[in-house]
Design goal:
With about 230 residues, the protein is α+β, with helices and mostly antiparallel strands. It has two domains: about 1-125, Thiol Ester Dehydrase, Chain A; about 150-234, Roll (Thiol Ester Dehydrase, Chain A). About 15% of the residues lie in helices and about 35% in strands. The chain has helices spanning about 20-40, 45-50, 120-125, 170-180, and strands at about 1-5, 50-60, 70-80, 85-95, 100-110, 115, 150, 155, 190-195, 205-210, 215-220, 225-234. Strands 1, 2, 3, 4, 5, 6, 7, 8, 9, 10, 11 and 12 form a twelve-stranded antiparallel beta sheet that branches. Helix 1 runs antiparallel to helix 4 (about 170-180). The longest helix is centred in the N-terminal third of the chain and has 18 residues, at about 20-40. The protein is globular, with a radius of gyration of 18 Å. The mean pLDDT is about 95. InterPro entries: Acyl-ACP_TE_C, Acyl-ACP_thioesterase_NHD, FATA/B, HotDog_dom_sf. Pfam families: Acyl-ACP_TE (PF01643), Acyl-ACP_TE_C (PF20791). This is Acyl-[acyl-carrier-protein] thioesterase.
Length: about 230
Amino acid sequence: MYGYDSRVRLSEVDQDRRMTLNAILNSFQDCSSFHSEDLGVGAAFVEQKKRMWVLSSWKIVIQRYPELAESIRVETSPYEFSKLTGRRNFRMLDGRGEMLACADSLWVYMDAVRKRPCRLEEDVAGAYTMEPRLTCMEYEDGHIQIPEDMTAEEPFPVHRWHLDVNHHVNNGQYVQMAAEYLPDGFVIRQMKAEYKKSALLGDVIYPEVKIDKNGGTVVLGDQDGKPYAVIEFR
């Protein structure tokens, strides 16, 4: 399993000095990026092919949020490729090797010009070593059931700081947007996100929200009600 060692930074913690969900998510994304770069099939390599990896769905389970300056290890391993997609696990461990968080993710290999899924080339897929799927969570199909009685909230525009290297809203930004609707003091133990289409600079996001004592669901959509992303918190 590929991994790197780190410590929880001041920029990654909340007002209680605990690492945020978004910082954990970003650590997982960084780990997958480092992994691909070290194998020689990173961003520049797939860009030359006019290809890109796009995240389709996440499931992240939190056992414990690490604290400021705590030593952590972030690890990842791919466990399945199809013709068009790849599946990848992540985990975060503390200094004793105990599980802090783990995740499952589904990625789609895309033609960057035509903006549609394309066949995964052998020189990309063959660079990775498949490993057994982690047993730290229940696996699901990634589909989130949207409640019927959603409440519309104030729309807001996409800004430059929301964008990633692919020039669309980074998947972690959607999660951070959605988490703003949770009540104060709610501790996220599980997050699922399903990404439907890319929001770009200048787009306006229309949120719909359903929150209860156990968590909630947030749909971040366009003016016609078509979702960019659906996020579920528990």
